[in-house]
Write a structure and sequence with these properties.
Elements lengths: L15 H20 L38 E9 L8 E8 L9 E6 L9 E7 L6 E8 L2 E8 L12 E10 L2 E6 L2 H4 L1 E2 L1
Antiparallel strand pairs: 1-2, 2-3, 3-4, 5-6, 6-7, 7-8, 7-9
Length: 193
């Protein structure tokens, strides 16, 4: 077999130094490209219908929920954000429950709003489902300003707390200055799990 022409040249035998030089050159080109912008380029952010910059949705990690978990921690297991009352700002719906290694601990569902002062912690403005109701939230969504969720529960006190046997589809919507709960008819939404 005859060697290819140029095989003995230094540049045809890459060494670590060659790779380092190539990587440095590519990095320099990418960095330079990030500084070159068209003359009319400006940074912008979305504005709401009133022309204001919309506030970020409240962070459930900054809220103290009214749930006593004893020695266990409180977990935020689901969250969804959207404008629920039509005021142009986003609210957050948080599903919380006490941490448990097994079973189905009851959930609490809370609506959070961001106070007008930006540095203040979000506040709870509504309790949609209290842990005392002994329900577990399986799903949570916000669509068109309405909150929907599949909720698991128990048909009697005799059902073990590990094994919910009733499922309901609930919906909450802002009407008349408060959240109104509705559910699908029992023949459609409640079934043995």
């Amino acid at each position: 077999m005859q060697p290819m022409a140029g095989q003995d040249l230094l540049h045809t035998q890459p060494r670590p130094m060659h790779w380092l030089a190539t990587a440095t050159a590519i990095s320099a080109v990418v960095a330079a490209a990030s500084f070159i912008q068209p003359p009319d380029a400006t940074a912008t952010s979305a504005r709401d219908a009133t022309g204001r910059h919309p506030a970020t949705a409240p962070d459930p990690g900054k809220v103290t929920f009214p749930v006593d978990c004893g020695p266990n921690r409180l977990d935020v297991v689901k969250k969804a954000s959207g404008d629920l009352d039509g005021d142009g700002t986003a609210e957050t719906v948080a599903v919380v429950r006490c941490h448990s290694g097994m079973g189905s601990p009851p959930s609490g569902v809370y609506v959070l709003a961001q106070p007008s002062e930006r540095r203040a912690a979000p506040r709870i403005v509504a309790t949609l489902l209290a842990p005392a109701q002994q329900r577990s939230v399986q799903t949570l969504t916000i669509k068109d300003g309405a909150i929907s969720g599949a909720v698991l529960g128990y048909s009697t006190r005799d059902v073990p707390r590990c094994c919910p046997d009733v499922r309901k589809s609930l919906k909450w919507q802002w009407k008349g200055g408060k959240f109104v709960q509705s559910e699908l008819p029992a023949s459609v939404s409640t079934r043995r799990v």
